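idk why but the lab printer keeps eating my pages so im just putting this in chat instead. protein + iron/sulfur cluster:
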Amino acid sequence: MLSSNDQRDLLAWYDEHQRDLPWRHSSDPWAILLSEILLQQTQVSRGLVYWQRMVEAFPTIATMATAPVETVLKAWEGAGYYSRARRLHALSQLVMLPKAEGGFDGRLPSTYGTLLSLPGIGPYTAAAVASIAFGQPVACVDGNIRRVMARHTAQQDPPTKEVQTWADSALSHERPGDWNQALMELGATVCTPRRVNCESCPLQSTCQGTHEPERFPTPRKSRVKAVCLDALVQIAADGHPVLHQRPLSGMFAGLWGPMYHEHDVQRPAPDWLSCGTVEHLLSHRRMTVHVFLKTEEAPPHGTPRSKVPISSLDEKVLAMASKHLPTEHEG
Ligand code: SF4
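predcted complex ->
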């Protein structure tokens, strides 16, 4: 349990030490929602760049709702987890519908339960937006808060329900948005997975894990799966790569890229030139992609890369293949 002194000290620490992040200067629920969705499984330094780009491209829910999903995916390019962008687009269209048609008349709902009913919004995002954008007294739980709770209570594997109960009981009802952000900020900058800085922590006097913080919590087993594929790159006569839109579900759904196949130890065909291997890490997959290039029998037209959304992995694949192009294709 956190005491009222802990609450006061953590909020005072947050007021003094919080990082200066642009969405913290905004009271616009849409801008706050964008930050919360972009920062899921993304480092803040990278999230900053993409947040700026998304806010400029889609300053309001209406601007996203009226844009084609391809345009949203293009703006999202490089941020990864593209299903988030697709669901955000679906959310914007639902919010813009009139109430009579099941929508929200263009206004993001303010309560936890209603936010949770929207596409792509899970318990964490619903609690974060309800508290930060609308001042609702709802406690967030994310990986940072779980780590702070596990250490503060010296538990190696606290069940999710228990972490939520702890967060609910610790919540400041006067400043719920700041409180949630303060706990997450503490986990991100002080109570970090390694090199924990207990000396700077406002909760040190009541923390049961401060003597051996890295014992808590026990690291969760990684479920990263190794995937090995062959990418078959073909360059058209106009110099653009031949790209195909991926299916609307599964990995890189709806994005464009070269053809992929299960890796074959044999070269796909004798006239495919082996260009090398690209390694790419996703949250649950370690991708090894063997890149092959075909320059014979080129079709007249390819797809300009600037016109379609492409994953970072495919950017790397195309860059590797382009190094092996005959000189007339370069540039
Ligand atoms: S005292 Fe150390 S272990 Fe405890 S919450 Fe603070 S940083 Fe984490």
